[in-house]
Amino acid sequence: MRSGGYKSGFIVIMRINRELPLRFLPAGPEFLDRFLALQTEVAGPVPDHSVFHPDTPDELAAWLSVPGAAFAALYDDLLAGYTIASFPVEKSGHPGLDIGIPEAEFSSCLVIETSIVHPDFRGRGLQQRMIKDLIESWIQKGVSHVFSYCSPKNPASLKSLLRCGLGIRKTVLKFGGFERCLLHMDAKDGNR
Ligand SMILES: CC(C)(COP(=O)(O)OP(=O)(O)OC[C@H]1O[C@@H](n2cnc3c(N)ncnc32)[C@H](O)[C@@H]1OP(=O)(O)O)[C@@H](O)C(=O)NCCC(=O)NCCS
Q: Fewest CB within a 10 Å sphere: which of 9, 115, 138, 143?
């Protein structure tokens, strides 16, 4: 049995039944410890920052303080995965600068920061589903641009983001010099 409290025989059942009874729901600050635990389990003690840059507890706490900024996938009470977004307010470092969107629209931008799916639940499109739910909920609230950064060495994540309607706009250096694709979706009425 893997770590994380998974039930005996769980993996076998999962292989037979690809349609798991998963619940997708907005996640708030009460999920902070579980998100950190999953990140630690997935990234390991020495994360490869060229592929995945772990978030700090302070970053996660700040993002989770915005209601609806994260979605979680739960199997019973197990955290199968999460996706979390931020809403950049500072002009400096804003992804809109990289692709030249009007400054008046900087305040209605969503950045998908991180998605993590526990290895036992991968291959079912969970990342895609969580990102789609997140994006749709924020478009209904008036978000007009969606951004994300993704390593070109992370094909699973790139594929999910592209399937959610984002497109690769350029390559930038992030997190102290690591290559990232900057992805963007113009979510304004009529542009999707
Ligand atoms: C990235 C991640 C969230 C994706 O989880 P997931 O939702 O289970 O994604 P899937 O396994 O459904 O993969 C999505 C697609 O990429 C494909 N894929 C997966 N690994 C791949 C690889 N190494 N090369 C090419 N394609 C790959 C899958 O086959 C799938 O495509 P398909 O539906 O056509 O078969 C998960 O792998 C993860 O948690 N990784 C560690 C953390 C991370 O890197 N997060 C993203 C950066 S923030």
A: 9
Supply the pTM of this predicted model.
Answer: 0.91
Looking at the CA of residue 117, tell me the nearest atom of ligand 1: 39
Domains of the chain: total? 1
Nearest CA among 89, 114, 117 for reference residue 103: 89
**Residue 176 falls inside a structural domain:** yes
73: in domain: yes
Q: Which domain holds residue 50?
A: 20-186
Residues forming a β-bridge with 74: 23, 79
CATH number at residue 28: 3.40.630.30
| Residue 99 CA to ligand 1 centre (angstroms) | 26
Q: What is the DSSP letter of 30?
A: G
Token pair 């199968």 is found at 80
Residue 12 pLDDT class (50, 70, 90 cuts):
very low
Question: Which residue lies with its CA nearest to atom 11 of ligand 1?
Answer: 123
SS3 172: strand
pLDDT tens for residues 107-162? 999 999 999 999 999 999 999 999 999 999 999 999 999 999 999 999 999 999 99
